Each structure stands twice: as C-alpha cells, then as structure tokens.
Amino acid sequence: MPTAPRPAALPRPSLTERRRAETQLEIARTAAALFTERGAAVTADEIARAAGVALRTFYRYFRTKEDAVVPLLAAGVRQWIDDLAAPAPDADAPSVREALERTARRSLTPADEPAAEALHWTRGLLRAMPGDPALRAVWHRVHHDAEEALVPVLARLTGAPPLEVRLAAAAANTAMRIAVEEWAAGDEAPDDGPEGPAALVARCMRALTAGLPQLEREAEAGPA
Amino acid sequence: MPTAPRPAALPRPSLTERRRAETQLEIARTAAALFTERGAAVTADEIARAAGVALRTFYRYFRTKEDAVVPLLAAGVRQWIDDLAAPAPDADAPSVREALERTARRSLTPADEPAAEALHWTRGLLRAMPGDPALRAVWHRVHHDAEEALVPVLARLTGAPPLEVRLAAAAANTAMRIAVEEWAAGDEAPDDGPEGPAALVARCMRALTAGLPQLEREAEAGPA
DNA sequence: GCCGACCTGGCACAGTCTGCCAATATCGCA
DNA sequence: TGCGATATTGGCAGACTGTGCCAGGTCGGC
Prior knowledge:
about 0% strand; Tetracycline Repressor, domain 2; DNA-binding; mainly alpha; globular; 9 helices; homodimer
C-alpha cells in the first residue's frame, strides 16, 4: 500500500514527504483519467508524461502500470477498515453486524473532497473494467488485501474461531465490493442518486451477514 | 475459457482436437510444476521449452504466462457450476442451499484421475501464491468468472431479484474459494486428510448462506 | 497426387519493468 | 553562509512479455 502509514501525531510530514504524496496522487489522478477514457490502450509512458514525470520516476512510485490507480480505489476501503478498527468512542457497543454496516455506510458517504474524488474515480474505473482485465485484477487485489486486513479486526471484535472470522471478513468485504460495483453500473447522472452507494452497501451487508433466505425456499423448478 | 465447450454428444473430438487438448493440458501441467517450485521467477520461454513447444506456440494456447494454469485451477469450479446447472435427475428438489452444498462437496471429491490431478496442482499453486501476486491474480480471476457464471444458474433456481441473486452467487463462490484456500494452507501430508476439502466447503457454505451468528452477538470490547 | 485448412516455429517489434549511474534538490550541522 | 549526507529525479541499457507476419509441415478431402 503506497499510502504512508505515518503515526498521525506529526503535524509536519516533512515537506518532502508532502511533495511525494502530492506527486503520487497526481500520477494516480492522471492514470485514472486516461484509463477511464481509453482503457487498456494507454501506455505507462503516456501516464508518466501526462503527469509530468519521467517513465523511470513513475516506476519508482508504482510497481506496475495498473498499480497507479490503487490509491484511488483503496481509499474508501481503507477508511472503512480503519473506522471499524477504531474503538467506538461514546456509542454503546452495538452488534458487530451493526458496526460493519454503520462504518461501511460512512465510508461510502464522502466527508471531504479527497473522499468524494476517490469515489468518483472509482466509479469511472469500474465502468472501464469490463474491457480491461488488468484493471479488474487491480480491483480484486484491492479487495483481497481488504479481506486480509479485516481478519485481525474482526477477530478482536468477535472473538470467534479463525475459520468463522475469515468467513465473516470475506462476507463483509464481498458486501462492500458488490455494493460499489452495482452502484457504479447504475446510471444515475450525478454521483449520488436515490439509491446511493451508502444505502446499497447497507442492504448488501445485511443480506450477506444475516443469511440468504431465498436459498432456503424450496426450489421452484422452472421449465426444462 | 480455453476448455472447449463442445456439445457432449460427439464421441469423436476429431483427433486434431484431441491433440490440441492434450498439448494444452501438457503445457498447463508443466507451468504448474514450474510455478510451484520457483514461483514468479519462471519465464514463459522456460515453460514453453519444458513443455516441448516454441514460445510462439505457447502464446497461441494461452494469452498470458499465468493463464497457463487456468485449466487446472478452473476445473473444479467449472464442474461444480455445470453440476449445479444440470437439472437434478431423480432426487426430489431440495432447497437451493442444499443443492449448492451437495454439488460443491462433489466437485471437491475427485471422481477421476484428471479431477484429482487438478486438485493436486491447485493445492501446490495456492501454496506458491503468497510469493507471487500474478498467480494470485489468476486465482481471483477464475473466481470472478465463476461468480458471473453462477448468476444465471442461481437466477433460474431461486427466481429471486437480481441483487439478491448476485449476492447469493458471491456468497456461494466465496464459500468455495475460502474452503479451498484453507484446505491448501493446512498441512495434511496426503491429498485427503481428516478435514478434506469437501468437508470444509460444506461448513463454509452453510455458514455463508445461513448467516453468521457470531456477528449478531454483543461485541465484547477487549482491552484498549 | 493435388489443394486447402490448420498447427507450428522463427523473426521483428512495441511495450513493461529493473539495475545502474549521474545530476539536482533538500536537510542537518557547523 | 557553506559543506556533506541523504533522497529524488532522469536517462540508458537490457531482460522479459505479448503480437503480427510469414514460411514450412501435417492432415483431411477432391
């Protein structure tokens, strides 16, 4: 994860560090813009030039061409998990399911400009994915990492045995992924419609953590 | 999907076709062997030479280097979905959940040599994945395709609305993925131990489709 | 025996990604 | 203010990936 995990107590990220972060974000933005409009056809050199850096520099910021969009795609998920991991300040402890749903909602309701921007680019990139397998691979890698990061958090929150924790992490992560995918596939013009991503993720989270009653009904055999 | 979808009613796959399939499987085996022992370091040229074909020929069978192992990784999943899609012959229609669990079990209980071999290589490849992101990407791509293939099948079986169907497909697919991953991570010497993949997938499927009660319990806040 | 379809291999080439070195900017310290 | 330590940047060479193109070989039908 390229986003620096600095101790959060330093008011001065050392100026050089800030420039670095700014450069990285600038490359990410450029890459996202190019990918959304031309798909897999864009070359690493193009991204680098458009972002105003040399090709060699680009590869110092990102290991692969597609990695350039990871900061944008991972922003929401990262905030979600961090939020979930933070001990609830004053709210009396709800069930873990409620905590998952609440934090997921919050992570999909952009609070500041960067969050809104990341969500916007995520939508654009998701729409470009059907035609670009490599881009889809990044999306799945982001969620694979999220699933792994979710495990220790849920282990602490539930105290359940390892396999159950993994399944819970996978279920929660899947709810988040599908909610965002479905939202991005929809065609509401502005970024927030009647069925925004936050509302969707709540429905998905509830369905996946509370069980899928549709599967228990007797199978109504259709025609051959 | 490289595996040819021929009509199943032809006893003669045309000899040339058989040679082709044999060559493809041979390349896949070779690639799996090399990947399991040396990880991402193997080159496409090595795989091709070891399989006895030219580099150019290798790329006629597979679009990318890692794609070479897809026939092995996808075999089980493919059989699972086909089995689920086939109308139950004589058994009285159980719930969809039971059908999912039963077919999943069956797909992880190798019936013939090729199935056992695919499972064996899958295990080896999964163990090589932590050190090889590209290999992990193939694994996730296989499961992404499986999730998509599952949607129409579950739509027919349940008659549920689109979003619920997608969630059910994702849940079932996740159960399968995690069961195999956990089985591969275990250290039972032979291919089948006390907790084989079939038993594991049954547990995972039940947990993910019937709900996760652990998440509903009050969160027992641990120490800060 | 000839012809067309297909598989195969070799070659050239654009693109990806890395190692190495020189030039430049920044920071800490005297 | 000036100097050395450190870090960022860019250019270049090179291995590897993946594709288009063309030539040679095999198998089938006419």
